[in-house]
Amino acid sequence: MAVNDIKRLAVFTSGGDAPGMNAAIRAVVRTAIYHDLHVYGIMHGYEGMIGGDLKRLEKSDVGNILQRGGTILKTARSQAFRTKEGRQEAFEVLSEQGIDACVCIGGNGTYTGAKIFSEEHPVKMIGVPGTIDNDIYGTDFTIGFDTAVNTALEAVDRIRDTADSHSRIFFIEVMGRHTGYIALNTGIGSGAGDIFLPEIHNSINYLVKRLKQANRRKKLFNLIIVAEGDTDGNAQAVANRIKEELPEFDSKVTILGHLQRGGAPSAIDRVLASRLGYSAVNALLKGENKVAVGLVKNEVVLTSFEDAISKQKELDADLIEMARILAL
Ligand code: F6P
Question: Which atom of ligand 1 is the closest one to the Cα of 176?
Answer without folding.
Answer: 6
